[in-house]
Design a protein that fits this description.
Elements lengths: L40 E6 L14 H7 L7 E3 L6 E3 L2 E6 L5 E6 L13 H13 L11 E6 L4 E6 L6 H6 L11 H4 L12 E6 L3 E6 L12 E6 L3 H9 L5 E2 L7 H4 L6 E6 L3 E6 L9 H10 L2 H9 L3 E3 L21 H10 L6 E7 L4 H14 L4 E7 L2 H10 L4 E6 L5 H9 L13 H12 L3 H18 L3 E12 L23
Parallel strand pairs: 1-10, 1-11, 15-16, 15-17
Antiparallel strand pairs: 2-3, 4-5, 5-7, 6-7, 8-9, 9-10, 11-18, 12-18, 13-17, 13-18, 14-18
Helix pairs in contact: 7-9, 8-10, 12-13, 12-14, 13-14
């Protein structure tokens, strides 16, 4: 390891990672120039603070809203169509048998501590994820070795063909490249050192402040910094935008979207997302491990009503996760809202009602609360009383990880290839299979699909897997939302994306 690597790091300052308590008032600050960051600082209102800042460990979207601007990956999704394009890797080649991938790295890149980026950092970052079995270790399931071949070349050797390898290493900043040895010398939960356009200045319970990195390899950044302010209530975030206290937000009240379309004080943008929202039940808690009980719940839910209540028209009901404009979309919807059929399924399962189900949500994603309330009203007629358990997001994540739930409701964001999200959530012992689902046929199909190189054949495989996953109600899929964001008129250089990645490097303030 280069011992001077981390000496020049200007630390992030103290980071308070306790989540904002849900539903409480939030001080949105005063003045329109950007809080403590100066007149050329973009102030962005987001719903929740990061649970932590280690890109290899966190799975929380509020963390990646910040980290998207701090770290880089070898490849990155194009903003237009989400196909992979160069980032820290300038180019790559694949052997004829598809088992060796050679990446040529970009020269002249430095980390925020001033040290040079090279192949040792890539090898260290990826092996850290693998060796410590961190959140994204499953993405390397087919990788046999990762080696440096000189300072600007990284060679990945695979045990089987992996057609979505680029997506696996570049889909989001959970695959960030960090400096060699960084995890040994820094507390990455509260510190950050990347190669991205902004560097971490400070973070606390009210905001995270980034400043432009002057030696960013991608060229000059157009603002001096970004301040992420945590404003839980969508109405408060919108008010802050209208008052000029912030210049951007993705925390837009869904019930006001239509009215905002004609408002001159706000520029509103929306695009179909690749996200899905879902309910999942804990197989280790009876009776939720009973397939017919889960199918009864799936049958009782009116997804159209849930989507309308949660997103006010800015979502489409879907029972298979994948949105209609995806190549992998599968038109399969076996459940129709039918309380009588749901009651019959419960009777056939030998389950006595009334039942009580705790449903874990977080008002840091307000639509989960609204959706849960609607679902509660829909399950009551079949004899299931839903106790909506509203947690701050840090507690929500902790309870999910500990298996301390009957059921939970949340979304899965930035979905590009089913080999990632289906496999991670539904293969036996998958890293995000918190519900405890296991179906040997699904395992076989997901493993087969991950190695299939013909796209049409892959789709057929994932169609079969999706049908089994839906039939088993491993997840009860609800809807695909739109990405809806708003900013102050005159703001330029920002592009809304279907994967909800937030990039501010090219933003210009009015």
């Amino acid at each position: 390891m280069r011992s001077t690597r981390l000496l020049a790091l200007t630390a992030a300052g103290a980071l308070a990672v306790s989540a904002c308590s849900g539903g409480e008032g939030v001080d949105t600050g005063t003045g329109g120039g950007g809080g403590g960051g100066g007149e050329n600082t973009l102030v962005a209102a987001v719903a929740a603070q990061p649970d932590q800042l280690d890109p290899h460990v966190t799975t929380a979207y509020p963390s990646f809203q910040v980290l998207e601007n701090v770290y880089d990956t070898l490849v990155v999704p194009n903003a237009e169509d989400l196909t992979m394009e160069p980032s820290l890797a300038e180019s790559w080649e694949t052997s004829e048998d598809g088992l060796t991938w050679t990446f040529t790295l970009r020269e002249g890149v430095t980390f925020h501590d001033g040290s040079e980026f090279d192949s040792a950092d890539v090898v260290y970052s990826y092996n850290r994820i693998i060796d410590e079995d961190l959140s994204n270790a499953y993405r390397f399931a087919t990788v046999e070795s990762i080696e440096a071949d000189g300072p600007q070349t990284v060679v990945m050797t695979l045990g089987q063909q992996t057609p979505n390898l680029l997506e696996r290493i570049g889909a989001f900043k959970g695959m960030s490249i960090i400096p060699e040895g960084a995890a040994d010398e820094l507390d990455l939960t509260i510190e950050a050192v990347g190669t991205g356009p902004f560097q971490l200045e400070s973070s606390d319970a009210s905001s995270t402040v980034l400043t432009a990195y002057p030696d960013y390899w991608g060229g000059d950044v157009t603002v001096d910094g970004v301040e992420f302010r945590y404003i839980t209530e969508p109405a408060a975030a919108l008010t802050a935008l209208q008052n000029g206290e912030v210049q951007w937000t993705d925390n837009v009240p869904p019930q006001q979207i239509q009215a905002l379309e004609g408002e001159q004080a706000v520029e509103l943008a929306a695009t179909p997302s690749v996200d899905y929202w879902y309910l999942s039940m804990n197989y280790d808690r009876e009776p939720w491990g009973n397939r017919d009980v889960r199918r009864a719940i799936a049958t009782a839910i009116d997804r159209e009503a849930v989507a309308e209540a949660a997103k006010f028209g800015a979502a489409r009901a879907n029972q298979t996760a994948i949105p209609e404009d995806s190549f992998f979309y599968y038109d399969y919807a076996p459940y129709q809202a039918d309380p009588e059929a749901a009651r019959q399924l419960l009777e056939g399962a030998g389950v006595q009602t009334p039942l009580t189900m705790g449903l874990m949500v977080t008002d840091e994603f307000p639509e989960t609360v609204t959706a849960a309330q609607v679902i509660a009203s829909q399950l009551e007629p079949i004899g299931i009383t839903v106790e909506v358990q509203n947690e701050d997001f840090a507690t929500w994540l902790s309870r999910q990880g500990d298996g301390d739930f009957d059921a939970f409701l949340l979304g899965w964001l930035g979905n590009l290839d089913p080999a990632a999200y289906y496999q991670e959530q539904h293969i036996t012992d998958g890293s995000n299979n918190y519900q405890g689902y296991s179906n040997p046929e699904v395992d076989r199909l997901l493993q087969e699909g991950a190695a299939e190189t013909d796209q049409d054949a892959r789709k057929q495989i994932y169609d079969q897997a999706a049908q089994l996953i839906v039939d088993d109600a491993s997840y009860v899929y609800l809807y695909n939302p739109d990405v809806v964001q708003a900013w102050t008129p005159g703001l330029q250089g920002y592009q809304i994306r279907a994967d909800k990645a937030i990039n501010f490097e090219s933003v210009q303030l009015p």
